[in-house]
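> run fold BioF2-like acetyltransferase domain-containing protein
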Amino acid sequence: MAEAGMIEQALATAARAADAAGVHVVERHGHADMPAVTDLFDAVWGRDATSGGTLPPEALTALAGAGGQVSGALRGVELVGATAAFVGLAEDGEVFLHSHVTGVAPGAAGAGVGRALKWHQRGWALQRGIRRVRWTFDPLVRRNAVFNLVVLGAGVSGYAEDHYGRLRDARNAGAPTDRLIVDWELGAPRVQAAATGRTAEPDVTAMRRAGAAPLLRQEPDGTPHLTPTDAERLLVQIPADIEAIRGQDPDLAVAWAAALRATLGHAVRRGLRVTGCTRDGWYVLSADRAVHELAARA
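> ok
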């Protein structure tokens, strides 16, 4: 698709997503806009003076003034979501956008606000000649895995152990901050398909019939179970709600973090690719680039 056509498509996608969520996504520029953005981020992550704020207003003002992105999703005059991203430079000289934080107010969760913000971000980046967005996410949070890899059509470029150190906010609860590194190629066919609602999700049942093997799965009692395997295609399962587990059973949460690092983390570090994930919590890994095309259903 020609650049102008891709930008037009991206802006149309963003407009549809905003309409569906009942929000208006706008840029935040001046210092007067930023305290509300900071307050929203802190509320989403459960941060206070003892745990350290997410991004103070002056940092957001500087970020926007330096050409970065600070966008807010408004429902009427109420800020119900926001994103903050800065421009980065890859080792090969490519300019990309690093999306540091995107949050949706608790009362607006599940209404499509996050989609509106991310599709707006795609249009924002393409308008500025940026073709790639990167960010990190907790690989144990299933809804984020599905959102990033299925709904947005993004890929995974790496696994970082304890990337931010121990965070004491309500969501991380002092757990190791292992992260998957997301690589969103804004013009990739998979992303363009996702922009029109044609998402790809692996068919795990078919893959298991073809020889894919579970490397990590959840036992009926909720504990992680590792099964060593030399299969070329691997399946790694995560629990439905790790954040609830962190609040109710910290020891079990730590066990899951260790199990995922030993399986998903080790596999990515030795060169296997995360080719997708399913809504019921399975990551699919493979060294074969053709596997996803054969196994996914659009």
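Confidence is low (pLDDT under 50) at residues 289-298.
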